[in-house]
Amino acid sequence: MSVLLAISPIVFVMVGIVGLKIKATKVSLAAMLYTIIISYIAFNGTADLIKTQGFNGVYSAAQTMCVIFGAFTMLSVMRLSGAMDKINVTLSHVSNDKRVLLILIAFAFGAFIEGAAGAGTPAAIAAPFLVGLGFHPMSAVMASLISNGLPSSYGGAGLSTIVGTGGVVDVVPTMNASSTAGWLHLFGALIVPTMIILLLYGKKGLQGKGIKGFLLSIGATYGATLFVISNFVGPELVSMTTGVVTIIAVIIYVRLVKIETPIDFYVTKEKKAASDQTSVTIKEDKFSALQALSPYLILLIALPVIRFNVPLKILTVYGYPTWVGLVIFIVALIGAIILKSAKLIPESIKIAFKSIIPAFIAMGSLLVLANIMNKTGMMALIAKTLSAAGGFYPALSVFIGSLGAFMTGSTLGSNIMFAPLHVQAASLLNLNPSILVGSSSAGGALGNIICPNNVIAVATTVNLLGSEGEIIKKVLKPWFILALMYGGLSLLYSHILFPTYGM
C-alpha cells in the first residue's frame, strides 16, 4: 500500500497532463497539494519539512526561469529585429534541406550548449532558434528534447557526472561513471538522428539520395566522439567536444556529399510557421551574416569561457542556472546593440516576462512535489521496491535514472538521489556498481526527454505552453525505445561483457 501511495503523485501528473490533457499549471498545483496531504498521512511529513521543501522548490524554479527568461529575450530580439530572417538565408547556404538543419541545430549545436552550460539550456536555446528559422514549434520542441537525451549524462562541464556521482566516488570513480554511461550513449547516438526524422516526418523523411547516409554518419560521429572523450579524457569536455566535432562533421558531409532534397523538405516550406509571431518585418539585407549570427556566436564563446574560468563556488552563489540565464540575457542586450535594435529591448523583455509566469507556477509546483517525495522517502521506497528485480536490476537502473530525472528535472538530481541506492543494490545482488551507476546516469539523461519541467520550459520558449500533454505523448515512444535499448545493453554489460569492470 505504501508503494502505491509513493508512486501516486507521479501517476497523478502523468494522467493529468498526458491522459486528460489538462494544462500543466493546473495539474502541477493539484498534484503538489495532493503530495503534501499524503506526505502528512503516510510518510511522516511535517510542517517544517513542507515549508523548507516548498521554499527550495520555488527557489529552484526561479533559477530555471532565469535561463528561460534570457533565452526568450534573445529570441524576441532576433525575431523583432529581423536577424532571424538573415540567419535563415545564411544557413540555407550550408544546406537548403530542413532535415540537415534540424540535426545541425537540435542534435549537434544542442550538445555543445549542454556542455557549455547545462541547466536545461539546450532545449531553451535550440528550440526557439529552430522556430525562428521557420520550423513548426512542435517539431522544434520534439527534436530538441530527444536530442538532449544524450549529452545530459555529463551536463555543463561534466557536473552531472562529477557532482552527481560524487557521493559514491570511493566505490565508483568518476571516470568509471563517465565511461559506462558512454557505452550506452554510443549506441543511442547511432539511432537518434534517424529517430528524430522518422518521428517528425515518417518514412518520407528518409526520401532522397544521401539523407540516410547523412543521418547514420552524423550519429556515428557523435557516438564515437562521446565514447572516446567519456572513456579516455573525462566528463568535463564530453558534451562540448561532441557538439563541436558533430557540427564540423555536418558541414563537411554536406560539402562532400550531395543530398537530394524533395520539395517538401526545402527550408522555405515551413518559414511561415514563425511569421505570425513576428510583429516587425525587416528586410533580410539589413544585416551581414556575421552581424545577424553575432548574438549566438558571442553566446558560444561566453558560456564556456565563463564556466571554465570563474570558480564554481562563485557561479553557484545564487544557483547554477542563474549565471547561465544572466549570461544569455546580457548577450541578448549586447546582440540588440550590435543589430542596431536597442529600441526593441523593452518590448523583448516584456514579451519574455509575460511568457514565463505560467511556467514558473507549473515548474515551482512540480519541484516542490519532487522535493517532498525525496525528503519523505517516497522516491527511495519506489527505487528499493524495483531493486527486488534481482538479476534484471541493471535494466531497471536505466528506468530508475529516468524516474529521478522525471521528478527532479535533471540528470544531476537523479544521480545524487539514486547513485547510493545503486551501489547498495550492487553489493546485495553481486553486480558491478560502475555499470549500474553509469546506466542510471544514462537513463537520467533519457528522462530529460519526458521530464515535465523540461517540457514546460521548452514549451514556454516557443509559445506552446498548455500543450505539455501532447508534447510528452509524442516523445514518450522514442524515450521508451531508447530506455529499452539501454536496459538491454546494461544487462549485457553487467552479466556477459564487462561484469568485473573497475572492480
TrEMBL record:
Localization (cell): Cell membrane
A Pfam family recorded for this sequence: Lactate_perm
Record's keyword annotation contains Membrane: yes
Annotated TM spans: 6-22, 29-47, 59-80, 100-119, 125-146, 153-175, 181-201, 213-232, 238-256, 287-306, 318-339, 351-372, 392-412, 479-498
Membrane-protein topology: Multi-pass membrane protein
Organism domain of life: Bacteria
Signal peptide: none
Keywords assigned: Cell membrane, Membrane, Transmembrane, Transmembrane helix, Transport
InterPro entries: Lactate_perm
Stated family: Belongs to the lactate permease family.
Stated role: Uptake of L-lactate across the membrane. Can also transport D-lactate and glycolate.
Name of the molecule in the record: L-lactate permease
Organism the protein comes from: Youngiibacter multivorans
